[in-house]
Design brief:
Blueprint: H1 3-28, E1 30-34, E2 49-53, H2 56-59, E3 68-72, H3 101-110, E4 116-124, E5 128-132, E6 135-138, E7 141-142, E8 162-164, E9 169-173, H4 183-186, E10 189-190, E11 194-203, E12 209-210
Antiparallel strand pairs: 1-2, 2-11, 3-4, 3-11, 4-9, 5-6, 5-8, 6-7, 9-10, 11-12
């Protein structure tokens, strides 16, 4: 093999290794994302740039109540429950199966064909959730949401409104309750469908900083 060919091969190895390391970092450590929805207004606004912490995929640590997370969107054709179809004893979101190694790589690793939602964790596994009287109750006690909800926020649900979050799941809602399609209509999210916890906002620069 000529020196030129060896040099080219070395560059190819370096590029492949760098690409794999970047994928591993993006999947297990952190990645940037862009807000594309109004469901978290006024906490987050459209086109803001965020950093997601993904280390929970290594530590297996559950998100906490109040955390803002992103997750894979459930199947909209199957999991938008109605008052007639809801089962409060089985409040779980339904997902379509992604088939084929190429499709799975594009969907789960590169995430180029995936739709994601960004919401706030309201309850975690084992907690009893009740939504009534324009408020959220966790294990019988009213949840203080004054730190992130606007005063005129309307919090009601005629679908999932009295249930226990199953083991290995979380219940999430948007801060902009009237404009948020969330767990109130499609059920709780399994933790293996979570993508990351929002930790920083880095754009625009005038609102740069840690997300509360």
């Amino acid at each position: 093999m000529s020196d030129k060919a060896k040099n080219i091969l070395e560059w190819v190895y370096c590029i492949v290794i760098a690409f794999l390391l970047a994928l591993l970092f993006r999947y297990f450590i952190a990645t940037p994302t862009i807000v594309k929805q109004r469901s978290m207004f006024p906490t987050l606004k459209e086109e803001q740039r965020l950093v997601l912490n993904r280390t929970f995929r290594i530590t297996k640590k559950m998100p906490e109540v109040g955390d803002i997370v992103t997750f894979e969107a459930p199947s909209t054709s199957k999991s938008l429950y109605t008052p007639e179809t809801v089962d409060q004893s089985n409040p779980i979101a339904i997902y379509d199966e992604v088939k084929g190694p190429v499709s799975k790589f594009l969907y789960y690793i590169l995430e180029v064909t995936k739709t994601s939602y960004i919401k706030r964790v309201i309850a975690t596994e084992g907690q009893h959730v009740e939504i009534k009287d324009n408020s959220v109750y966790i294990n019988g006690e009213i949840l203080d949401e004054s730190g992130y909800l606007q005063e005129d926020t309307f919090t009601e649900s005629n679908v999932f409104n009295d249930f226990i979050v199953p083991k290995g799941y979380v219940f999430c809602m948007g801060d902009n309750r009237r404009r948020s399609t969330d767990c109130r209509v499609f059920g709780c999210i399994p933790i293996d469908r979570l993508e990351g916890t929002v930790v920083y906002r880095f754009w625009p620069m005038n609102v740069w900083g840690k997300i509360e």
